[in-house]
Amino acid sequence: MKSTDYKIKSENVDVYYGDKKALTDINLNIRPNTVTALIGPSGCGKSTFLRVLNRMNDYIDSFSMTGKISIDGEDIYQSKIRVEDLRANVGMVFQKPNPFPKSIFDNVAYGLKIQGMKDKEFIKKRVESALKQAALWSEVKDDLKNPALSLSGGQQQRLCIARALAVNPKVLLMDEPTSALDPISTAKIEELIFNLKEKYTIVIVTHNMQQASRISDYTAFFYMGKLIEFDKTAEIFTHPREEKTQNYITGRFG
Amino acid sequence: MTQKNKEVCIELVLKLSGTITVLTTFGIIWVLFSESFSFFKEVSIVEFLTDNQWTPLFANKRFGIMPLISGTLLTTAIALTVALPLGLSIAIYLSEYAPKRLRLIVKPLLEMLASIPTVVYGFFALMIVTPFLKTILPNISGFNALSAGIVMGIMIIPFISSMSEDALRSVPKSIREASYGIGATRLQTSFRVMVPAASSGIIVSVILAFSRAIGETMIVAIAAGQQPRLTLNPLVPIETITAYIVQVSLGDVPHGSLEYKTIFAAGMTLFVFTFILNNIAFWVRKKFREEYE
Questions:
Q1: Is the residue at A181 inside a domain?
Q2: Measured between CA atoms, how close is A164 to chain B, in angstroms?
Q3: Torsion angles phi and psi, residue A137, rounded to 5
Q4: Containing domain of residue A190, as a range?
């Protein structure tokens, strides 16, 4: 595979919060249309790394970064890049479902509306297709005007996925998207992730080893701000090269 | 004393302080009601509400509360026109834009505005703001609603900015992140997500500021004049309900006379206004509180 074929490239990335070093020398390349799981104990830097990919850390005063992150060959920390365009292109789903206190429809339409889209028919179609992709359409199609907060937790999380998909991103970042959900909702989201990789490149942070092994193609193991091991998921879970990885996935710590 | 007796004592003290407060409130309401009642035995409530003159202290006595109400609402409206945009902008700036350090400095400073004695504000209005306004509007009277209203607006800015900022910051952080995460700018996030999500708290802050402005006494008594006048012209002297009560209380009106009782009728009117507003605020807060869990 040529290096330009990577969707996301991270080169020598160091991240600091004030004096505290959160990530050290991360080099990690992610292929398009794959699911990459970031695993590791709490505080290992996996969420920080995820948030570097759509510049969500920009608003943290003490945040600073060196190194280079490129998506589709373009350095996303370059000054001429509009961070708003980047984030529309690199969607994000958060740990706890966080729909806006608006209607179901307005939640999904939000991304389009802030881009200045006025065409009502177009918005309607996009909302429908996003909800279908997120496997939520059949459950809510008659209640689009209902408040999003009236949905169940699992539905809210799928709504948040639909909201991110509505603006046609290329990459989808998920930060422990099922940690606040029950097993049935979790299963639905996992199935959804599996289907979504046809169109999107997905990076998912998870604390759940089984989840990582079920849904991901590649797994990156982070420990104390360093990338310890990155390989095909099957390799990581059956023949980890590093002892730390081995200890973590077998539940000896973390 | 045993531990148990101590507990009983403390409970008693706490109960007593609560009871005293409640009794005082009821006492005030009782006096207001009974004195107003005897006022309305001599002056019909229809005249009180419809007559367009308020001249209880003149030989030709007229008892229409409307001029006082118009004076009160006029100064209050001016105050809100000043305080609402400023207070809300400050709230949004502090909660959505300002770095944390700046917020921690600016917020207490703003709240200091509320701790300046209102008599100082009144003087400020009369001696500085009115002369300044005169350079722009030569027609303006020495006592006028505009200057009092503007200064009152400055005084209530912290009511709006502080409470609205609290409301904005009590919206879960995750909602702000959701908006940023999909590519919204700070401005879009502020006005399309944060302000609507905090709207109940913001509305409450405005209503309470409104209520505070209606009840404000010193500034208007000093700077707005003492001429009950049914007008919306902000450039001429007017009188508010509160200023009238001050005027009569300080004058030599004999106790128990009809003139004396007018202040209770006026006070009653004021009470009704603020009571309704505070209840609306209470209702809004209960009814429209967003639940995020």
A1: yes
A2: 6
A3: -55, -50
A4: 3-249
Q: Does A114 touch chain B (CB under 8 A)?
A: yes
In a domain, B152, yes or no: yes
Find the CB nearest B183 among A100, A102, A111.
Answer: A111
Are B7 and B89 found together in one domain? no
Residue A69 DSSP one-character state: E
| Chain B residues within 8 A of A92 when measuring between CB atoms | 177, 181-182
- Model pLDDT, residue B229: 93
Residue B57 domain-assigned (yes or no): no
A82-118: pLDDT as tens digits: 999 999 999 999 999 999 999 999 999 999 999 999 9
Q: Which two structure tokens, joined as six digits, stand for B238?
A: 């007017």
Task: Give the predicted TM-score (pTM) of the model.
Answer: 0.85
Sheet holding A226-232, edge to edge: A90-93, A171-175, A201-205, A35-39, A218-223, A226-232
B20 and B126 share a domain?
A: no
Q: Does A254 fall in a domain?
A: no
* Chain B neighbors of A111, CB-CB under 8 A: 182-184
Q: Where are the alpha helices (DSSP H) in B56-99?
A: 66-92
Q: pLDDT of B92-130, one tens digit each?
A: 999 999 988 899 999 999 988 888 999 999 999 999 999
Q: State the ipTM, two decimals.
A: 0.91
Specify which residues A21 forms β-bridges with. Answer: A16
Q: Which of B179, B182, B185, B289 to probe the A interface (max A CBs under 10 A)?
A: B182
- Residue B182: the pLDDT is 95
User: What CATH number is attached to the domain comprising B159?
Assistant: 1.10.3720.10
What is the domain range of residue B78?
66-288
Structural contact between residues A93 and A99, judged by C-beta atoms closer than 8 angstroms: no
Residues B94 and B31 in one domain: no
In sequence order, the 6+-apart residues with CB closer than 8 A to the CB of A126 are A108, A109, A112, A166
Q: What chain A residue is nearest to B97 in terms of C-alpha separation? A: A59
pLDDT digits (tens, 9 = 90+) for B162-197: 999 999 999 999 999 999 999 999 999 999 999 999
| Mean pLDDT computed over A193-217 | 94
Give the count of domains, chain A.
1
Does the CB of B178 have a partner CB in chain A at under 8 Å?
yes
Average pLDDT over all residues of chain B: 93
Chain B contact for A172 (CB, 8 A cutoff): no
- The Cα–Cα gap between A174 and A84 comes to 18
Question: What are the tens digits of pLDDT across the range B7-24?
Answer: 999 999 999 999 999 999
Counting the structural domains of chain B, the total is 2
B131 and B272 together in one domain: yes
Question: Rounded distance, CA A230 to CA A227, Å?
Answer: 7
